[in-house]
Each structure stands twice: as C-alpha cells, then as structure tokens.
Amino acid sequence: MKIEIDGVNVHYHVSGSGANVVLLHGWGANMQTFAPVHQALEKNFRVWSIDFPGFGESEEPPQPWTVGDYTMMLEKFLKQLGIHEPILIGHSFGGRVSIKYASKPNCDVRKIILVDSAGIKPKRSLSYYIKVYTYKTFKKLLKLPIINRYEKEILEKAKSKLGSADYKNVSGIMQQTMVKVVNEDLRHHLPHINVPTLLVWGELDEATPVADGKLMEELIPDAGLVVLKNAGHYAYLDKLHEFLVIIDSFLQHEKEEPKS
User: Fold this and answer.
1) How far apart are CA 145 and CA 142, in angstroms?
2) Could you give the percent of the chain with pLDDT greater than 90?
3) How many CA atoms lie within 13 A of 94 on its CB side?
4) How distant is the alpha carbon of residue 207 from its chain centre?
5) Looking at the chain, which terminus has fewer C-beta neighbours within 10 angstroms, N or C?
6) CB atoms within 10 A of CB 178
7) CA pair distance 65, 179, nearest whole angstrom
8) Please, what sign has the CA dihedral across residues 246, 248, 249, 251?
C-alpha cells in the first residue's frame, strides 16, 4: 500500500490487530529486513512497516532531508492513518527517527524499542578526517582552470575511493541526505524521552557500538539495555528468537489476547 505525504509516495504494509506497533528500518535497508519481526508481532498487535522515502518502494524526497524531515514524515503518516499511541521499534537510522519523535513535547508514543540505534555522533578517527579533508581539498583544486572541465569525472572517482559503501550505493539526493543525517548528534533529545524504553544491542556491533547503548541507557530516564552475545549491527536478525522473547516480555501488558 502507498500513501502520499507532502507529494512523496510512501510504501507501507499493515496487518494484525491490537495496539499499534510501527517498525522503522535502518539506513540502506527497507521494510523487508523487519519482515520476521512483523510476522511475529502481528499475532497480537496491529503492525505497520514503512519504507522510508528513498528506500524500498517509497519515492525519494524532493531534496536532501534531515532527521527532522523524516520525523515530520512519520508524524504525518501516523496522523493521516489515525495511528494513536504507537509503539515504535527503530533499528539504526530508524532509531534516530524514533528518538527525535518520542522526545517531542506532548508526544503520544506508548513505548519505544531502539535496536542498535544510531544517534550518538562518533568520535572520528584520524583516518576519517584525512579522507574528508583530502576530498574537500581535491574539490577546491578542481575549480582551477583546465582541470575544472574534468571535475565531475574526477570527483566521482574520488568518492568511489573515499566514500563508505552506504554513501556510494545511493543517488545524489540520498548521499546529501546521509551527510545531513550522520552529522546530527541526538544525545540532547534523550533526556526528553518520557516513555518506557528498551535498548537492544549486538555485542559485536561496530557501526553503533555497545558504548552508544550504554550512554542512551544513562540519558533516557526510563530505559533498560539488553546486549545480545555474538550479534552484530543487525542484532534482531542475528539472534531473532532471543530478540522476540525479549520484546515479548517488554510488550506483555500491551498485547491483545489471540482470538480462539
């Protein structure tokens, strides 16, 4: 199914009945990565899976978006479809949007589950800054006469060597969106989340390390952290059974009894 939000067609899937659960995928993924979780939860909940604009079957945003733009899109999605008191489950980038939305004043979120969530701006290594500033210097040099006629071709080659896989695998608008997204530190929003929060992390997560989860646990007033052994950035898939048992316990009081 699709819904138009401010001129952008957003693809989603809904099934089940009960309290509303909204699944928000990570960067570079789509709703299909949450399919086994959706199938497990639909027995007791009304579950909504969304393809964020720019991913899956949703259209790209008309211009580069910030986390705030995606959060506004989520707010309008919930309002247009009459989704009240949602339980948000956000993985990685989906966690960013969950944090920003749940920290809004008078937010009606019921609970949130953050899985290997992004949102804490990392301390960059020296090699990272060398890459970034090499690229910026390169860009300035390409404005010089004669060289500038080859600017586009050379820049593409430079980006292919210096950019991350996530950055390289998307269009220009989404590349610019990614830059806006990863450079936003959301830690100042965390103390304003006033709903029960479950943090689930992969012990071996290198993209958003366990230290980020521990910091979120400290800063969110009502939060608890569970670390899954031998799991990486996609902890909910690496340890699906354990993940489902953990969230089942966290959502026990929200469940609708299965119909006989």
Assistant:
1) 8
2) 74
3) 28
4) 12
5) C
6) 21
7) 10
8) positive
